[in-house]
Amino acid sequence: MRLIIIGAVASGTSAAAKARRNREDAEIIIYDKGDYISYSSCGMPYYIGGEVDNAELLTPRNPAFFKSKYNVDIFTNHEVIAIDGKVKTVEVKNLATGEIFMDSYDKLVIATGARASVPPIKGIEYKNVFTLRNIGDMNHIKGFITENNPKSAVIIGTGFIGLEVCENLKALGIEVTLIEKLSQVTPGLDTDMSVYVEDHLKKNGVKVFTGVTVQEINEKGIMLEDGREIKTDFILISTGVRPNTELAEKAGIKLGVTKAIEVNEKMETNMEDIYACGDCIEQFHVITGKKVYRPMGSTANKTGRIAGDSITGGNLRFRGILGTGIFKVFDLAVAQTGLSEREAKAEGYEVVVCHNIKPNKPEYMGGKEMIIKGIADKASGRLLGVQIVGYDGVDKRIDVFVTAITYKAKAEDLFHLDLAYAPPFSTTKDPVMYTGMILDNAINGNRKLITPDELDTLIKSGENYKLIDARVVSQYDKDHIKTAENIPHSKLRKALNDFDKDTVTVTYCNKGVTGNAAQNILLNHGFKEVFNLSGGHKHFRKNKKS
């Protein structure tokens, strides 16, 4: 069998390696139009910032390595310019010499990846405007910084890469301004969680503009649509990526609803003996089953392995994604998996949402708070999504949630997980367990939650309600929600006779625990409609300044 793979990096080389492990007699050839066949794109921001001091650490494998270990022939600077699926040939151009030649295959893998998505902004061709998608881009940026010693930078877009570069530019002493056309940073998060990221950016000296669009780039900097001009020395466009599908589409290979290549669970395209994997394909979501496009290096490796296995008679099948992601900006970790609240509502779920603020381990062991947003389906109790913003231990918790959601766990199941505990690592009841407890109480225990947005709507509605601040007097006097009455938890039972049990009542404390205790007292005394403020006063203040 002669196997040709178009594209290397994560998915192409994974497909080749798995195919070789399964079939020693296969002839495997990779054509890649770039100079580098395997590199860590996620490590590039850290080389730019100097945390990684040797670029070769990001490119550990070369064609000679693959030839010696896997007996795979890799040709760099060779671009496949056409595919003929009927006669099973590819047309290849040697970019170094200009020579064009034909090659034949028995099986073909398309692993052409993705490229930076560049918005149609006037002036994009200026020499101080960059994207960051590959090692060449990284070297150009690093070279520009070394040669020009810029004092300021503008980053357009606030996704993972943009924020990671932001941190690394600040480490070099470069002043950074972030531009985001949406009304919030980190578009993948819900707004009530993205505010934590934005505040953290500002605390670290980053200027943030949201809800604005860049109209033009000029020799001084950028011009916004509202007429404001931001002067800057160089510009990074970080507005996402687009799948490289032109070659496939020209050959008659079907694209999916996301405009990436459509494949089945074996990575087969609509054309016989042609497979695709990596950032050029669409995936499907574990929860909804719907097609999505969420390119990630981890998924590229996985789909490449599946393609190589399928080609050589294996039984691996793709099981979908949850859109899991994590990144660090300064010392803050931000993670998400599954559906966001807005996505879940768009899918028709009646959701229950909680905001759980807990330390990753006891404070006496140096624990630091994280805020966990959990989203569950009210009807079934199934956990749908989680977002976490914190410091230490965020990666550990998000991976537990990923596993739980993958295996269709309900919120109530989280409490029963036998998680590892010792004070250097966790609290007795882990934040994962607490999240499950809060959601389960809301779903099955009539301990209803109200979000800051919902409370703000209630306050402005003119409807009759009672808002109880269950904290001690000194905390109330320092700051409280404007319509709240201070009745400390310890005095609540004595004040019950003055309350109307039919009035909608909302309780709150600093983070939610004492508010829940006050809620329990009211419910146990026959109050009909009692809500606890999700995340307490601390989360409300983060989202509602008034």
UniProtKB/TrEMBL annotation:
Keywords: FAD, Flavoprotein, Oxidoreductase, Redox-active center. Belongs to the class-III pyridine nucleotide-disulfide oxidoreductase family. This is FAD-dependent oxidoreductase. The keyword Hydrolase does not apply. The lineage of its organism: Bacteria, Bacillati, Bacillota, Clostridia, Lachnospirales. Residues 461-545 form the Rhodanese domain. Its cofactor is FAD. Gene3D superfamilies: FAD/NAD(P)-binding domain, Rhodanese-like domain. Signal peptide: none annotated. InterPro entries: FAD-bd_OxRdtase, FAD/NAD-bd_sf, FAD/NAD-binding_dom, FAD/NAD-linked_Rdtase_dimer_sf, Pyr_nucl-diS_OxRdtase_dimer, Rhodanese-like_dom, Rhodanese-like_dom_sf. GO terms for molecular function: oxidoreductase activity. PROSITE patterns: RHODANESE_3 (PS50206). SMART domains: RHOD.
